[in-house]
Amino acid sequence: MASYEELLDEADKLAIQVYEKPMQTRNKGLYMDGVIWINDTLSGIEKACILAEELGHYHTSEGDILDQSKLTNRKQELRARQWGYSMLLPLSAIVQAHHAKAKGRHEIAEHLNVTEDFLQAAIDRYTEKYGLFVLADDQHYVYFDPLRVVEIFDI
Question: Where do the IrrE N-terminal-like domain residues begin and end (predicted)?
């Protein structure tokens, strides 16, 4: 789990410039040629979610993928989002929210400093990837629908 400031530090280490500026409402962020633009009207939590995805484009995308009618571009978009999910919402973060007694999507998203939409999108992607549940570590299963963590106890 990384905060917006930590993601900005990551971008700096990668020599990526990050600018906040007003953008059309449908545009929340954009990565191109070592520069990320973030819509400055977003909340700090929204900016972190968008920055994670845009860093994902740096790590996983190639070329201009704005035309989402092309399958290859949609695949690159998905890879970038997956990178963002793994950066902000690894399975261990969901387990950590469980231990912090966060209940329900709203409390979990708040505890993990992500938007509920980002949390839901990550859960949807994890469900596509793993099915209804996954062994997150040696002691926890994460179930995705409904979202919950089950601890494994040694007998």
Answer: 11-121
Cα(47)–Cα(40) distance, rounded to whole angstroms? 8
* Angle between helical axes of 71-88 and 44-60 (0-180°, round to 10): 130
Residues 111, 97: Cα–Cα separation, whole Å? 7
132 and 141 Cβ atoms separated by less than 8 Å: no
pTM of the model: 0.89
Can you give the pLDDT of all 155 residues of the chain as single tens digits? 788 999 999 999 999 999 999 998 778 999 999 999 999 999 999 999 999 999 999 999 888 887 788 888 889 889 999 999 999 999 999 999 999 999 999 999 999 999 999 999 999 999 999 999 999 999 999 999 999 999 998 65
Strands 35-39 and 17-21: parallel
Torsion sign across C-alpha atoms 61, 64, 67, 71: negative
